[in-house]
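Here is one record:
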Amino acid sequence: MRKVSSRAYFALALAAILTVGLLVFIVKYFVSAGNWVVFPGSPHVYSGINLNCGVVSDRDGNLLLDATDGRKYSDDESTRVSTMHILGDRDGYISAPLLGHYADQLIGYDKVNGTYSFLGNSIKANLTISTDIQNIAYQALEGRRGAIGVYNYKTGEILCAVSSPSYDPDNVPDVENDKSGAYTGVYVNRFFSAVYTPGSIFKLVTSTAAIDTIPDIYQQKFQCAGSSIIGGQKIICGGVHDTIDFSEALAHSCNCTFGQISVEVGAKTLQKYADDLGLTTSFSCDGYETAAGHFSLTDAGDGDVAWAGIGQYTDQVNAYAYMRFMGILAGGGEAAEPYLMDSIQNGPLTTYKAKTRTTGQIVNPETAQKMATMMHYNVVSVYGTYQFPSLYVCGKSGTAELDGETANAMFAGFIKDDNYPLAFVVFVENAGSGSAQAAPIAGKVLNACVAEMKKS
């Protein structure tokens, strides 16, 4: 009897352990199963590091990627090339964190049916970008390395996020053995993951700080003889501007003037503005963790501060972050946060819909308006309104000097118009003058954006 009783107790204990184990598994399943399914190592839904689920379209419904059975890209070669850094390639050399970020919705997992749908629903993701704008922007770079971004600073929709160079995922080149340099850095998404010396577009940061902290900035007169000595360093200007005021100095990008203004603003204040405007921050945008910019004036002398305020020294900015800054100025000191994913639909159900989130008030509204006025004057007096027909464009060019290399060309700004509230950046590596090279590209892309917005 004792043996039978012992065996019964043992059996009951074992049954209790199995029951508890089963309950723990069930609880863990309902809590964690979704994460197990979307884990990047899952061969059922991933190819390498990129998600293989769902159908992805642009803002107009044009097919970009059908990943329901492998990866089928757009039938248009230009579109495949211009959108690859957003969608990723088949082999995972170029990642698509956007799709991974929404993996649970794109896979269509639920705890009862798993990833299987009895209704046979097709899961569709709709992006905010336009293939027409992507293609025009990419082609405008003419094979040069760089990044172009445009977004609606009222809603947050990114209409264009181009990184160059790229390639056709349906006709992959031999990147490893390429000797032409055409694919140098091709695996880097330059819009989200690269940083650049900003050159004179950084004078917009210095100007914002100066308006807030120098009471008589508009009454001051500055002298430019083509160069000046500040803090023992020679500040070289691109011209001889003689006596010049603040607005004209921004329009003509006078280094001598902005070197003086930078020192007057001061290292601590410049640092605070660069930080507050997000230029040293890493942002999260639909799965992308953007590269953080760099601006540090620790132990910097007046000469270093002068060069930093001009946009040289050790300054580095990210295209996404600078585009966001342009949106903040355009929006009166506050803007929508940029995003790429508009919505996801599983059959008749909308499982995700983007909502506009704002940056909060970062710049004083009066300061933002003064900046807009000055930046529009730049376009009228220097860059030419002919490049932006019928558009109230506010902009600033930059020519970022590099040791031993041709300068990078930059152009950044926004359209001050409730019908076309667009902020933009154009960064072109080793292209030379920002006004000569980057501004015309901005004109082409903005005109395409306006045409796109007129359709809706």
In short: The mean pLDDT is 90. Residues 191-339+358-455 form a domain with the Beta-lactamase fold (CATH 3.40.710.10). The radius of gyration is 26 Å. The longest helix spans residues 2-38.
